[in-house]
């Protein structure tokens, strides 16, 4: 039964609180102007409810905080590193661990050791940093996700699935020797936090391995994907999320993980592999770019908290049940009010369809960026753009990439906000939608060459 159809409560009690303050409209007008209408450049003190990201913003448990005090800060061979190795092997099933400061450190190393100039890397929709590292290494990303992923209204239960016909076509066109690996994201972020099915992952792995192509997961949100498989895929309802996460990983040759999501820590990540020779190449890169192979840019206490967070996330199903349940709670409130969002509701956030709300704003005036700024101005709620600004420009033509989805993401941190915060957020979104004609488009005043959504600045189009 879906968590939204019966009463439930968070499987924890609050032990420490951090005060937050509602700002005035005048303060928010000044703040968003100073930030160049980019929510990434707002000061956190000027934000009331912060839904910019669920990355590194979760609340750690008392057990994790206790681990911070016993972290082993030895430069080499830290006890906390070996605790992390054990946790990754037990929960994810990978034998070779390369720790990194966060997920993009792992993406960088994986891309550098596997991609050659002219290679193609298929994946189930791009993610910003993942595609950047693939292109930086000389590769070309090719989207092979199912078409339903690009349709906000589609109720397909597994919109993160690989389209096997698209994958076969790419293999036939460019040759398997030009495809070092497929990049398979669990709970696809840019599609709205949408899962892929176990059957699809298994079929994808079979096709790739028959052609000598490695399968590399972005397992950052494998836990949330496991929860959806448990709810939606035949044969999994009686399995624990721990068992499902382990099976997901079993069909892959390795994974990158930003531990700032599922793993319940504020910093950290890792690259996990099965092939010892690949792991040797990765560790050589690690020492040069991240740190020694037994800390990879993390302190001992961070590794200790991470090891505990990995075990904690799958200790029972209660944590992910409540985590996804809170996202569904907000999503259901918005759907009930007629707000156009990506459906089904995803695992880590709500994705509002800005194109549907602001049809008067041309795509090249960044509707999602404009709606994000308008939401902050009205309520102090901070979300982020996931549309043409995030998609960047074509490296050859210089034109904007125009994704079919133009979204405002409200990402929910784990174990941070209450249902009352979700009620306030829903009211804020609904309030902005009462007068969408008041929202105007934006244009760049500063555009970085790559990953522009982090630091770009804008001004309203008069």
Describe this protein's structure.
This protein has 462 residues and is an alpha/beta fold. The protein has 2 domains: 3-54 and 317-460, Alpha-Beta Complex (Aspartate Aminotransferase, domain 1), CATH 3.90.1150.10; 62-313, Aspartate Aminotransferase, domain 2, CATH 3.40.640. 39% of the residues lie in helices and 13% in strands. It contains 16 helices and 14 strands. The chain has helices at residues 25-34, 62-69, 79-91, 103-114, 128-136, 164-174, 198-210, 222-232, 241-250, 276-289, 300-313, 318-336, 354-357, 367-379, 388-391, 419-432; strands at residues 49-50, 96-100, 120-123, 140-143, 181-185, 214-218, 254-258, 269-273, 349-353, 381-382, 384-386, 407-411, 442-446, 457-460. It has a 5-stranded mixed β-sheet with strand order 2-8-7-6-5, with helices on both faces. A 3-stranded antiparallel β-sheet has the order 9-12-11. α2 (62-69) runs antiparallel to α11 and α4 (103-114) packs parallel to α5 (128-136). The longest helix is centred in the last third of the chain and has 19 residues, at 318-336.
Cα end-to-end separation: 50 Å
Query: What is the beta-strand fraction?
Result: 5-15%
General form: globular
Low-confidence spans: pLDDT under 50, at least 5 residues? Answer: none
- Count structural domains: 2
> Major sheet, described briefly?
5 strands, mixed
Might you state the CATH topology name of the largest domain?
A: Aspartate Aminotransferase, domain 2
Q: SSE string, helix = H, strand = E?
A: HEHHEHEHEHEHEHHEEHHHEHHEEHEHEE
Helix content: 25-40%
Give the class-level CATH name of the largest domain: Alpha Beta
Number of strands: 14
Main-sheet strand order equals 2-8-7-6-5
CATH-defined superfamily of the largest domain: Type I PLP-dependent aspartate aminotransferase-like (Major domain)
Mean pLDDT: 96
Measured on Cα atoms, how large is the radius of gyration?
21 Å
CATH architecture descriptor text of the largest domain: 3-Layer(aba) Sandwich
Helical segment count = 16
- Which class best fits the helix and strand makeup? alpha/beta
């Amino acid at each position: 039964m879906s968590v939204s159809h019966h009463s439930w409560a968070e499987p924890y009690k609050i032990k420490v609180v951090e005060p937050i303050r509602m700002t005035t409209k005048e303060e928010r007008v000044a703040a968003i102007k100073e930030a160049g209408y980019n929510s990434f450049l707002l000061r956190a003190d000027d934000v009331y409810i912060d839904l910019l990201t669920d990355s590194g913003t979760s609340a750690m448990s008392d057990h994790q905080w206790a681990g911070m005090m016993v972290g082993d800060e030895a430069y080499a061979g830290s006890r906390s590193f070996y605790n992390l190795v054990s946790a990754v092997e037990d929960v994810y099933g990978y034998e070779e661990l390369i720790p990194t400061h966060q997920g993009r450190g792992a993406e960088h190393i994986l891309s550098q050791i596997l991609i050659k100039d002219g290679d193609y890397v298929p994946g189930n929709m791009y993610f910003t940093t993942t595609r950047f590292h693939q292109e930086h290494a000389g590769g070309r990303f090719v989207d092979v996700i199912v078409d339903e992923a690009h349709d906000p209204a589609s109720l397909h239960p597994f919109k993160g699935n690989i389209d096997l016909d698209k994958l076969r076509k790419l293999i036939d066109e460019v040759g398997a020797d030009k495809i070092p690996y497929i990049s398979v994201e669990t709970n696809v972020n840019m599609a709205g936090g949408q899962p892929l099915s176990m059957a699809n992952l298994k079929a994808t792995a079979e096709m790739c391995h028959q052609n000598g192509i490695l399968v590399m997961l972005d397992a950052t949100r494998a836990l949330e994907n496991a929860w959806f498989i448990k709810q939606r895929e035949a044969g999994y309802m009686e399995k624990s999320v721990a068992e499902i996460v382990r099976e997901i990983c079993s069909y892959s040759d390795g994974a990158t993980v930003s531990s700032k999501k599922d793993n319940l820590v504020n910093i950290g990540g890792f690259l996990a592999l099965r092939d010892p020779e690949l792991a040797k190449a990765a560790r050589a890169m690690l020492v040069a770019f991240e740190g020694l192979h037994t800390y990879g840019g993390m302190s001992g206490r961070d590794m200790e908290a991470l090891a505990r967070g990995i075990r904690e996330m799958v200790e029972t199903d209660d944590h992910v049940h409540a985590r996804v349940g809170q996202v569904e709670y907000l999503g259901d409130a918005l759907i009930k009010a007629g707000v156009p969002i990506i459906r089904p509701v995803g695992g880590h956030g709500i994705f509002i369809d800005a194109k549907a709300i602001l049809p008067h704003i041309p795509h090249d005036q960044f509707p999602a960026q404009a709606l994000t700024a308008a939401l902050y101005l009205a309520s102090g709620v901070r979300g982020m753009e996931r549309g043409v600004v995030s998609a960047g420009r074509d490296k050859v033509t210089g034109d904007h990439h125009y994704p079919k989805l133009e979204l405002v993401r409200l990402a929910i941190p784990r174990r941070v906000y209450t249902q009352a915060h979700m009620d306030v957020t829903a009211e804020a979104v609904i309030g902005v939608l009462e007068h969408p004609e008041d929202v105007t488009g934006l244009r760049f005043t500063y555009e970085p060459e790559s990953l522009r959504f982090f630091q770009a600045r804008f001004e309203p189009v008069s």
